[in-house]
Predict the 3D structure of the following.
Amino acid sequence: MNCLEFRRLKLADPRRLPPDAGKHAAGCAACDAFAREVDETEAALDLALTAPVPEGLEDRIIFRSRHLRPAWRAWALAASVALGVGLGWIAWNAQSPSGQYARLAIEHVVLEPESLTTLRNAGPEAFQAVLRELGATLNESLGTVRYVRLCPVEDGFGWHVVFDTPHGLATLIFVPGKALRGRETASMSGWNALAQPTRSGYYAIVTASAAHTDRVDQWLRERVVWSRS
């Protein structure tokens, strides 16, 4: 078992791991630390779930997260409690199907606000490791990487990356194994997103303006080389 497989299993069902996953964590300091962090998050979420939910908010979040595995529905609900009525602007029902993956990227950023203020796996090494997992290489820096995390997205997992650019923070979400027919864009309440297909799935960029999003997309296409296989 490798580190990526272990982390997928831990995120899918934090409280139940197969024996080979436990053996991997016992011999891998990084994955053992990752497992402890997930366990601490689970405990915090259990506490958050005791807080009262604003009327109607639970239904909206459960509708949005119906595609997630059961262990992550609780995560989505707890995130909604932490954000409170500030999530009211996410009007999924009012949106047309066009641009759905770009809108999902914005929702993901809103549901994980700590990604914009926290340093996690900061530095180029973690980002380059993600690219290798996706069958890509980086030929020039995109900016200062601040946050790298494997997150639940749609019906699977994706890599959530936040980095500094000369024009402010940008979020990049890689979703492997999910086909996207063409470029998508979306804007909601001050956030702008763009989703583009890749050979291994798709990526989405989220920033505070369409101009910044387009600029980051240009940097990404110029500096990330995707394998032809």
About this structure: Helices lie at 3-12, 19-27, 29-48, 57-64, 70-83, 100-111, 124-133, 210-223. Residues 60-96 have pLDDT under 50 and may be disordered.
